Amino acid sequence: MRENLKGKLVGILGADNVKENESMCSVTTFRVGGPADFLCTPETEEQILALTAFLREAGEPYFVLGSGSNLLVRDGGIRGVVIRLGGEFSRVTVKKTQDGALLTAQAGAKLSAVGHEAAAQGLTGLEFACGIPGSVGGAVRMNAGAYGGEMKDILQSARVLMPDGRILACTPEDLQLSYRHSILDENGGLVLSAVFQLREGDPEQITQRMRELAQKRREKQPLEYPSAGSTFKRPEGYFAGKLIMDAGLKGFTVGGAQVSEKHAGFVINRGGATASDIEELIARVQEKVFSQTGVRLEPEVKIVGERL
């Protein structure tokens, strides 16, 4: 049965784009996680449509990985098929308009690459996103943001593949974008591409702003260690990092996982951490902060897969 499934996947994507029992350590920014039954890399829209149609008809579960940031894969791995967009899904194009430009980015494009392309074209609006370690698809799905900017501020539309095979053109209102959330979390839609409305600006000023934000990140965030970015959502009226620090948890460790001593809002892999170390650390931070403040921290990091 498993060989038959592999044969079907190879028939759709080619042998080079289908890997069996692939560890998630190498494709997630936490650098932990057990194996996926199959890791598939469609390179064209035709391939992703054919792949998801086959999996839907065969009743095979699948999970879209994105760039592997903002994600914790448990040590038991992921059953079924993990999809990671490749090939033409990194493409970025720009169309000038009277008001500035429309930048179209495919879902697999890295936010950092998209931001640098915008800067090279003299377009402003994406500077806040250049240091977010994710892809366009994941950023739209969670309405990613930093330094006062969010995807919903610049998103004009997105093409979304629905679980039933329909492709919809969605506005930000359709996507119901809010703080680190969209309706895609509920309806299972997959972003194929996104169009951003940007403005013309001075390339030197845009690049300088990007450098300033990059410097802030280096100074305040533990970029030297594997992590999934900010571990917790910001509770209304509070800052997660300050609540964790005030609870005396800065530097707290479970196995190889640690609450960063540089920024308490980040859980890092100090070396040799397992996914269970990280998940236990997240739970213990939640418990301690809740017991001291009554505030329940909600993970921003998505936790998927099976425990060992």
Any overview of this molecule?
The longest helix is centred in the C-terminal third of the chain and has 19 residues, at 275-293. This protein has 308 residues and is of the alpha+beta class. The strands form five sheets. Strands 6, 7, 8, 11, 12 and 13 form a six-stranded antiparallel beta sheet that branches. It contains ten helices and 17 strands. Strand 15 (257-259) and strand 16 form a beta hairpin. The two termini are 24 Å apart.
Order of helices and strands: HEEHEEEEEHEHEEHEEHHEHHEEEHE
Q: Tell me about the largest β-sheet.
A: 6 strands, antiparallel
Ranges where pLDDT stays below 50 over 5 or more residues in a row are none
Query: Could you tell me the radius of gyration in angstroms?
Result: 20 Å
Bin the strand percentage. Answer: 15-25%
Terminal-residue CA separation? 24 Å
- Overall shape: it is globular
Percent helix: 25-40%
Structural class designation: alpha+beta
What is the mean predicted local confidence, pLDDT?
A: 95
**Continuous helix count:** 10
Let me know the number of strands.
17
